[in-house]
Design brief:
This protein is an alpha/beta fold. It is built from eight helices and 13 strands. It has a single domain, classed as Phosphatidylinositol (PI) phosphodiesterase (TIM Barrel), CATH 3.20.20.190. Helix content is 32%, strand content 23%.
């Protein structure tokens, strides 16, 4: 099949929050399940604990079985894991994946970047490659800080709806990777981004038929809860 005179690239499949449709999100179990289904990348969310440990968590708090909530940034790791035993650290996730696929880390809004930078520098020193990681955020301040400290690791601009802002942010970071909410995408925009040299990924897209249609227009990949549907 052709698209603007070029062969259609293979659609990349990224496990969302590990693979939240098949296992508890942002857990080691979700990462194992994503690997079982042969994803091209694994995406997780990052927050920082009070004792400066990067953990996999989508919300800025965790809730235990009683319904009590604990703010991640005001609680130490040991206490958080008492209330949520399957809460993993970023270091544990990196070791589990062990360079089999790239790990995309979304550093959540307002988080300090130093704990992530220090941890990734250690793994790079220990033999991991820059290509084993991707760093993303919806906050430009975070991406700029990460890019300055870790210039060889690819940066992912996560921008829900504003295409002009997405391109502006990507230019600042010298990045060609955009991750955008699938609700705001349409074929003309996807074609335009491809022509401009951007690799556009849609989140959270669990519809293989829609993904295949958009692939013909230049969509590079999907971030999905259900990678099993794309096999």
């Amino acid at each position: 099949m052709k698209n603007d005179g070029q062969s259609v690239a293979k659609l990349a499949v990224v496990g969302h929050r590990g693979v939240r449709g098949l296992a508890p999100e942002n857990t080691l179990a979700a990462i194992r399940k994503a690997l079982e289904h042969g994803v091209d990348e694994i995406e997780v969310d990052i927050h920082i604990t009070r004792d400066n440990i990067a953990v996999l968590c989508h919300n800025p708090w965790i809730r235990d079985q009683t319904g009590a909530t604990f703010p991640v940034n005001r609680t130490d790791l040991a206490t958080l894991q008492q209330h949520k035993p399957n809460l993993p650290t970023l270091a544990e996730a990196i070791k589990l994946i062990d360079q089999r696929v790239p790990l995309q880390m979304e550093v959540k809004w307002g988080e300090p970047t130093k704990p992530v930078i220090t941890l990734l520098q250690k793994f790079l020193k220990d033999g991991w490659q820059a290509e084993d990681f991707l760093l993303g955020s919806k906050q430009q301040r975070i991406l700029l800080e990460l890019h300055r400290a870790l210039p060889r690791i690819p940066m992912v601009v996560i921008e829900p709806y504003l295409s002009i802002r997405a391109v502006w942010r990507a230019r600042q970071l010298n990045s060609r990777r955009l991750s955008m909410n699938q609700i705001g995408l349409w074929p003309g925009f996807i074609r335009a981004m491809q022509r401009r040299g951007y690799s556009l990924y849609a989140y959270t897209l669990n519809d293989p038929a829609k993904a295949r249609r958009w692939q013909q227009h230049g969509l590079r990949g999907v971030i999905t809860d259900r990678p099993d549907l794309f096999s």
